[in-house]
Write a structure and sequence with these properties.
Elements (H helix, E strand, L loop, with lengths): L3 H5 L2 H11 L3 H8 L7 H21 L11 H8 L6 H21 L3 E9 L2 E8 L2 H8 L5 H10 E3 L2 E2 L5 H25 L2 H4 L8 E3 L2 E7 L8 E6 L5 E6 L3 H31 L1 H26 L6 E2 L5 E6 L12 E5 L5 E5 L6 H16 L11 E2 L4 E5 L12 H15 L4 E5 L8 H17 L3 E5 L3 H9 L3 E9 L4 E8 L7 H7 L4 H9 L3 H85 L5 H21 L3 H5 L16 E4 L4 E9 L4 E6 L2 E6 L3 E3 L10 H13 L3 E3 L5 H18 L3 E5 L6 H12 L3 E6 L9 E6 L1
Parallel strand pairs: 9-13, 12-16, 12-17, 14-15, 15-16, 24-25
Antiparallel strand pairs: 1-2, 3-4, 5-6, 6-8, 7-8, 10-11, 17-18, 19-20, 19-23, 20-21, 21-22, 25-27, 26-27
Helix pairs in contact: 2-3, 2-12, 3-12, 4-12, 5-11, 5-12, 6-7, 6-8, 8-11, 9-11, 15-16, 19-20, 22-23, 23-24
Length: 806
């Protein structure tokens, strides 16, 4: 594909937007090398990559791609035996960590599908939800042991951890002790009454890596030692006393040993990296690919893009497409298609109406599609693959090359005509402009006809009436227009396919105040055919506007009718529910009245029997029984069913997986009970409420959680609140004896636990190590301690212990 046309269609600006979405230099390098593809399978795969990334980002919100560095050169150096510096090793470890995190996140979206050919034959198949991304992430090599070894050994670019080796820890401990011994000796010297008068100041200083004291120049002979420096005025000499020369030499030897041990550690870590160099280089390529893929996904989300349906035919349809470089809040979407009913589309209409934006949108969508990028359009859009995309847009006239506007256009057109194929897309802006209108129009028709006969897809803009007639005369060519609002004299930017546009020069001039006689004289210069065509177009435009208005009214009426229908449907449903509820209430009330009457009747009958006693005849008893049956029968017709009294009205929900022992709420009775037994077939459960047991349908029950009693008293809450507000997250034991420190820590941990602290710092200093060891041993036995560790760089190092509280 000819790269000269990328800039014309502004692909370079899309690339810049994509680079902003990348998280590493690796991804940016991949984007900078992005070019449109011409193979169907490659384009389909590239689009699928973007779709997977878009879906993962929408689902997860964020994929951690930070911490990825270009480590290829460093790894290759380690492979041939070179020792890497701390910065290089940290970048390698950070990249290993990013690799591990991505592996854990992106290789886990796999589901298992179960299937079989018979009842006894069941098989499982692992199906990747995001096959491309899952496959890439699954190909990453994980080196957690090397990653942790580097991070444990190197604190920063300028500091190696004491934990790097026991030898380094021992050397540094001896350096600390030697420093303390030298300072102790020098403190004795500077505080001595003998030496105080010889010293400029009672301070200890350093020159190079040697300890010195400032001596007045006139007393040089009174202090034996080695002169290392003097002040700018010459009044002060910095002398290393002879009594500490040997101690300074020992300190120097220890520091050299420290450097040597650090070199050995870095060499060992570099060797570990060199052993897995091939795997790290493989990871590097995959990480750059993943960063590139997720940059495409981020761009798709930011421009509300979709994956178009990819077809192998020479046709495309962009549904409500929006140019990606315009503000998505204000841009007017347009629908454009080619290759279905016509292969050439001619767009006419006034200037600033949006013609150029529309054809640029088609061109940039074609390029974005073949770069594997989503297009900002609606679902239902379909794109094909072109072997080349040609575009003649803009004015490239050159004074140096002596090219006029027409010449510059024609130079590009010649190249297009010579190289166009049936699988090409050709875009022309103002075809035939820059020369005599009649000749320009004729030439434009000839060029369009040549492109059409070559079988290529073509979209062009023009002002020539002859081209409108050409489109009307050819079955394979279609007119289109950009809409213009004559009332406001402004474009609407809507594209209307099937309607030739008007330049509206006379109308616009009239609205802007040009005299009527000048406009009429201009009309006289038009040919009869031009006038007839303009009249036809004007009539078509009026009819189109009228039809659109009628369609708009019909749509509004349809929506209004649907709203009315929905409103009355809801009213009817509500009425039915109210009627059923009223009927049920009436039955319940009637039942209550008759039940009271029955109770009164039974009472009277009982009294009658007592009065008659032995004298009651058999006929009377028989009649009384008949009366009772009649009353009971009349009550039975009004009595509401048990289900209607217990099951909630208008409820379709039903409790699932009910078990004996669970607590439930009887919805209509507003009582809580415990399930004694269940019958899943009948959907019924025996529920005990107090001393009473009832058999109730599942629909009348609602599961509730067991309530635990709150045993925290008001006084306890006050203590907790006071503790949580006053207890700090650290305790300082420096200057205490071991016994005092243990008592202080024991009380502090009780308070910190009550205050709800999860992590605290115990400051014990380094010193001789007795306090630190004693406290550490005691903490191992304390019930409040979950775990503990030595402080890291920035936390206090070996002088503190960080405790995790249970």
């Amino acid at each position: 594909m000819d790269k000269r046309y990328y800039k014309v269609l502004e692909l370079d600006k899309i690339i810049e937007l994509l680079k902003e979405k990348a998280s590493s230099k690796l991804g940016i390098e991949k984007i900078e090398n992005l070019v449109p593809l011409s193979n169907y399978e490659e384009v389909r795969n590239a689009l699928q990559e973007t779709t997977e990334a878009q879906s993962i980002l929408i689902k997860r919100g964020h994929v951690p791609l930070q911490g990825i560095y270009d480590i290829v050169d460093k790894v290759k150096r380690a492979e041939i035996g070179a020792t890497l510096d701390t910065k290089s090793l940290i970048e390698i470890a950070d990249t290993m960590r990013a690799t591990r995190v991505l592996f854990n996140i992106l290789s886990g979206d796999i589901k298992v599908e179960t299937f079989g050919n018979s009842a006894n034959s069941v098989e499982e198949e692992r199906v990747e939800k995001y096959p491309i991304v899952n496959s890439l992430a699954g190909s990453l090599y994980i080196h957690r042991s090397i990653e942790e070894e580097i991070h444990n050994s190197i604190v920063s670019e300028i500091e190696i951890s004491d934990n790097a080796s026991s030898e380094l820890r021992n050397i540094r401990r001896r350096i600390t002790q030697k420093n303390q011994s030298i300072r102790s000796r020098l403190n004795t010297i500077i505080s001595s009454t003998t030496y105080q008068k010889y010293l400029q100041d009672a301070i200890i200083s350093m020159r190079g890596d040697r300890f010195v004291v400032p001596v007045k120049a006139e007393y040089r002979s009174m202090v034996s030692g080695i002169i290392h420096d003097q002040s700018s005025s010459g009044a002060t000499l910095f002398i290393e006393p002879m009594s500490i020369v040997e101690m300074n030499n020992d300190l120097r030897q220890l520091k050299l040993a420290e450097v040597e041990e650090i070199e050995r550690i870095l060499s060992e870590l570099s060797s570990m990296v060199g052993e897995v160099s091939r795997e790290l280089i493989n990871n590097q390529e995959i990480l750059s690919k993943l960063d590139f893929i997720f940059a495409k996904g981020k761009l798709s989300i930011s421009m509300r893009g979709i994956e178009p349906d990819l077809n192998k035919d020479k046709k495309f349809k962009i549904v409500r497409g929006r140019h990606p470089l315009l503000d998505k809040k204000t841009v007017v979407p347009n629908t454009v298609e080619l290759g279905y009913d016509f292969s050439t589309l001619l767009i006419t209409g006034p200037n600033t109406g949006g013609k150029t934006v529309t054809i640029k949108m088609v061109g940039i969508f074609a390029l974005m599609n073949q770069c594997g990028l989503h297009i900002p359009a609606d679902f239902g859009s379909s794109m094909c693959i072109f072997d080349n995309i040609f575009a003649d847009i803009g004015d490239d006239q050159s004074i140096e090359q002596n090219l006029s506007t027409f010449s510059s256009h024609m130079t590009r057109i010649v190249d297009i005509v010579e190289n166009v194929t049936e699988d090409s897309l050709v875009i022309f802006d103002e075809l035939g402009a820059g020369t005599d209108p009649e000749e320009g129009a004729s030439l434009a028709i000839a060029i369009l006809e040549d492109i059409r006969l070559a079988g290529a897809s073509c979209i062009a803009t023009t002002h020539y009436s002859e081209l409108k007639k050409y489109a009307l005369a050819r079955n394979d060519v279609e007119n289109a227009a950009v809409e213009f609002d004559m009332d406001s004299l402004s474009p609407t930017y809507r594209l209307l396919i099937g309607v030739p546009g008007k330049s509206n020069a006379f109308e616009i001039s009239k609205k802007l105040g040009l005299r009527e006689d000048i406009i009429e004289r201009a009309r006289e210069y038009l040919t009869t055919e031009d006038i007839e065509l303009e009249e036809v177009l004007q009539g078509v435009e009026k009819n189109r506007l009228k039809i659109e208005e009628e369609l708009k009214k019909a749509e509004e009426l349809r929506k209004e009718a649907e709203n009315i229908k929905s409103y009355y449907s809801k009213k009817m449903e509500k009425f039915e529910k109210s009627r059923e509820k009223a009927m049920e209430n009436a039955r319940s009330e009637a039942f209550s009245i008759i039940r009271q009457a029955k109770e009164s009747t039974d009472k009277l009958i009982k009294e009658l029997k007592e009065i008659e006693n032995q004298r009651a005849s058999r006929e009377k008893d028989k009649r009384i029984d008949e009366i009772r049956k009649e009353i009971t029968k009349s009550m039975g017709n009004l009595q509401p069913s048990v289900e209607s009294m217990v099951v909630p009205k208008f409820s379709d929900s039903e409790i699932k997986n009910l078990k004996a022992g669970e607590d439930v709420n009887i919805i209509t009775l507003r009582q809580e009970g415990t399930v004694v037994s269940c019958d899943d077939k009948k959907k019924e459960a025996v529920v005990q409420v107090g001393v009473m047991k009832m058999t109730l349908p599942y629909k009348s029950l609602k599961r509730i959680e067991k309530k635990e009693k709150n045993t925290v008293t008001k006084t306890t809450r006050k203590i907790f609140k006071a503790k949580s507000g006053n207890i700090k997250r650290e305790v300082d034991l420096r200057g205490m004896t071991l016994e005092e420190a243990i008592m202080e820590v024991e009380k502090y941990l009780d308070d910190a636990c009550m205050a709800g602290h999860d992590e605290v710092t115990i400051i014990h200093g380094i010193g001789t190590g007795v306090l630190k060891k004693g406290i550490t041993d005691w903490l191992k036995k304390n019930p409040h301690v979950k775990s503990m560790r030595q402080g890291q760089y920035g936390e206090g190092g070996a002088g503190v212990t960080v405790v995790q509280i249970k």
